[in-house]
Specification:
- It is found in: Cell membrane.
- Its main location: membrane.
- This is Glutamine ABC transporter, substrate binding and permease protein.
- The protein is an alpha/beta fold.
- A hairpin with a 2-residue loop joins strand 3 and strand 4.
Amino acid sequence: MKKRIGWLLGLVTILIAGLTFQVQSVYADDSLAQVKQKGEIVMGTSPDYPPYEFEATENGKTKIVGMDVEIAKQIAKDLGVKLVIKKMSFDSLLTGLQTGKVDMVISGMNPTPARRKNVSFSDVYYQGGYSILVNKTDSWRYKDKNSFEGKTVGAQTGTTQYVESQKQIKDVKVKGMTSAADLVLALQSHKVNGVAMEKPTAEAYVANNKSLVAVPSHFDLSSSATSSAIAFPKGDNTLVAAANKSIAKIKKANLIKKEYLPAAGKYMKTNTVNTSMWHYWKAFAIGVEYTLIITVCSVFFGFIIGVILALLRRLRGNWFKDLIRWLATAYVEFIRGTPMMVQVMFVYFGLGVLVNIPALLSGIIAISLNSGAYVAEYIRGGINSVDPGQTEAARSLGLSSAKTMRYVVLPQAVKNIWPSLGNEFITLIKDSSIVSIIGVTELIYQSNIVRSDTYRGVAPIFVIMVIYFILTFTASRILNHFEKGMQHD
């Protein structure tokens, strides 16, 4: 009997090992075939890092350009597929890669040993270095990394320069931000003493902003920390091999120095020809459009979810109703106890493993679910504020429990909580900015792009402040109008 069990276990182990090997082999072999089959390759990037990748306005239209984009175009051309560019914050790129949102990441990323544990990298396509950006008026103070001892240095979150600044500068305070444009603004407003970044990017900012100077970092770095490569999902060997062929072609023809960087420089100069905010009105208009879409949809669905949750929390009776009430209560408490940013990322990246949900829809779903939890509490409070005599009178007239709630209690409850619902609507207009972390082009995202394009830090922020005020003030007036109407009922 023991021998039979041993043979059976051995056979099962062999079968599992064989299937695992087969699945891994098929997966590795199919990565290139899958890209060709769907006819497109999706590139993830954070377009705020000139000259690697940034947005430029041409003939009134905004597009993503830069050295990395040209490399991606060459890879797509060699594969015979269409290039699709998906915008994300830098620290979300690898998450997007691992959850299948993108096929590759090209964003001036360094192939460090830590990153290689989770993703596969192509051959190096560009060997750069690090500089530290400082204000020109302070350039006499800072010569290299040692000059920043006990100072504050800014760096983009998730980058090698962020990690190395912490390791190699004594007593330094490293301030991390998701956008290079935010870092430059922090530098110019003296929130940080310097900004560590890739040498080509630092030179790009210096070339377009006379108040800045780049000093050598003199970081002690390995070659992987100063080089740029393309990141792919772990095990996508055939796709990596195909990309390496394109990289070899690019290197052989020296296209980066001869064509890609000069072209990026031209776009950067074009961006600074007209840096007035009116020139970028279309970018802000797109931001307003997406902000309103997210807000209106989230208010509608959030209200429906809130009503359902509030009613479920009133269930009483048998064990099944008690279970439903407990689940509704747990949902409300969990959503209210976790940050909306985390919820947005979970819907986009977490659920994205199972279902490929677009960024805009993910944002609407996450904000609707979040709003529903808060609206549920408003409505529950509103229902409790209605005099119990109203319910008793309705039931005595022959109305069912459901009709009493629908026609008598809920209308009065909504009237009582209207100011709270209005406040929730105003809050959602502002909270819609959170979805910028997953690449939705709402107002905050668009302002970051404008700042990257124009190298102006304060003006775009002032513009969106005014726009947000106009939106919230208008919404507030409309809600007050309806509130006055309810008072006369």
